[in-house]
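In the current project phase, our protein records have gained a structure token line. A sample record follows, to show the layout:
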Amino acid sequence: MQAFEQSIYPELAEFGGIRRLSGVLDETSYEVGGMVLQTPAGWHYSAVLTNTGEAILLQGEVSAVGTTECARCLEPATVEVSAELQGYFLLNEADLAQGYEEDEVDVVAPDGSFDISYTILAALCYATPFVVLCDEGCKGLCPHCGCNLNEESCDCSSKPDPLNPFAALAGLSFSDEDVARGEAAAEEHGDAVASLPEEELPELSPEEAAELERALSAIFEDGAEGYLEFDEQGNLVFIEEDPAEDGE
């Protein structure tokens, strides 16, 4: 942004001097964390400058109406930003050695000038939300086909996600007999507590079979201790591990 310079002369040159400021800065945009907000109406400010004897104290507020992309649907979104202004401009640079950090205060130049633009910009940026939405109930974009779910619907949610590790399970079907056999085997905790005949498995490539094995292994992760593997006949079996053997 452009500099917004002030001078201590005349009213701020002495202790207790006050100057009141108000108006609109002709700034049409600003950026926060890579998000650009357009502010065609400028930045409205109201502030008071006071000579405290040691420094010029800036107090006030700044506000702006910004427009940017909605974080969910990428349509235009508007946000009203209002921030408190606080600035401290030391009259003597030597006072920096009195416990002040350079990033906490600014210093009035030898000619009595000081720039309050950074203080205003920092306050506005700090008050701007990191996520701006067109509406709190925004449904966003479908991650598969990209349609705007606020304006139209799609059937992508009913389709298996190919990136989901459990997607390989979508082609499996089990008869009541299979389910009953599996439940009984799980209760017994045998060495092969679950198996499926090869002819009842869908045709899977080696890569799909490996993914299915990993997905089913995750299902049992918090249950019985063991792992799943395909035997020589192509049956998927659960091999139970003996905790006692692991401790040896």
Q: What stands out?
A: The CA atoms of residues 83 and 126 lie 8 Å apart. The radius of gyration is 33 Å. The chain has a mean pLDDT of 82. The longest strand covers residues 55-69.
